[in-house]
Specification:
This protein is α+β, with helices and mostly antiparallel strands. The protein is built from 3 helices and 7 strands. It has one domain (about 1-145): Alpha-D-Glucose-1,6-Bisphosphate, Chain A, domain 4, CATH 3.30.530.20. The protein has a 7-stranded antiparallel beta sheet. A hairpin with a 3-residue loop joins strand 4 (about 60-70) and strand 5 (about 75-80).
């Protein structure tokens, strides 16, 4: 498994920040890998399902997501499966800090096949790392605009 953890401060309260971040249909606004999301609008609660088209690490793909946890203002987690044996989980955690929110995004992913595990080690991991870090910079920018 590859695990990446990134965090950033956002100038709004944890409830609003997490509600924005876990509204998957808004991901294309701020996540550079997210091309299109088909699913319910608004914050997604446990049991929700959505589909996403991505371009991550230089490769196109499709993810089928299931939300497994939503604790407003604190934590949200979803798991996905994709092509080429990809399986992943993303967790968003929020804590109040300095009148705003400290937002933490943890991405865990892996591939079932040896070929993709090798490609991940050689190329994909570094690209996904850069895209993940950029996603948090964009999240802060867009959340600070979108949240009244």
């Amino acid at each position: 498994m590859t695990i990446m953890r990134h965090e950033i401060g956002i100038r709004h309260n944890p409830i609003d920040v997490l509600a924005y971040a876990c509204s998957a249909t808004r991901w294309p606004e701020w996540h550079p890998s997210s091309l299109r999301v088909d699913g319910p609008a608004g914050p997604l609660s446990a049991g929700s399902h959505f589909e996403e088209d991505i371009y991550a690490g230089g490769r196109a793909g499709h993810l089928s997501w299931d939300v497994v946890e939503y604790c407003p203002g604190a934590r949200w987690q979803a798991r996905a499966t994709g092509s080429q044996g990809l399986h992943l989980a993303v967790t968003y955690e929020c804590q109040g800090a300095n009148g705003g929110t400290q937002f933490v995004r943890t991405l865990e992913y892996g591939f079932s096949g040896l070929h993709m595990r090798v490609i991940n080690g050689l190329v994909l991991r570094r690209r996904v790392e850069r895209e993940s870090a950029e996603s948090l910079r964009r999240l802060r920018e867009m959340a600070e605009r979108a949240i009244a």
